[in-house]
Write a structure and sequence with these properties.
Length: 226
Amino acid sequence: MESTQKPNIDDSWYEVLKDEFEKDYFRSLKEFLVQEKKSHVVYPPGPQIFNAFNTTPFNEVKVVILGQDPYHGPGQAHGLCFSVSQGVQPPPSLVNIFKEISSDLGLPRPAHGNLTAWAKQGVLLLNATLTVRAHMAGSHQRKGWETFTDAAIKAVSDHLSGVVFLLWGNYAQAKSALIDTSKHHILKSVHPSPLSASRGFLGCRHFSKTDELLLAQGKLPIDWRL
């Protein structure tokens, strides 16, 4: 049997997801990406595709925030949902997330939109689709990534306990079917997009509620400052 090179993903995640890399859907996904990169720009850059997994090791996951698709503008996506690279203007949904944190916790709005500091504290910032063609939102949906990230969500649900899942918008909320609510916590809201934020995201207080749920388990709360 031919040996396949281990993907650029943290060992802790590779242990729980290694079977996925050998499945037909993932082989097809890899072939799709090889062909796509021959004629298009793809975001985020290759080394950052698994950034969410590499910044938040499996056994350190305390909170999961689910996004749908990477940003598709130059320099924005770096493998963490809702986050942008340093020096890039925070997009509107992220601005609303910062507004809610400021209102909920009394913290000043950050000067940048890079959420790596959250990821290093155990906040898995996971998009359902991990790549996108430049300037074409949703262009890599239904190519296999969702199967892979569903497996990641289910691994967290199956093997960990007391994780707080923040499900914003209908797409993220559909993932609740993968989560064992007898051992995890789910907080739901509309999406922070400007189209919906005023209908329940602003005022949801998910950040203070998350910290309360973590503290009740004897875990350290998240420092949401950047």
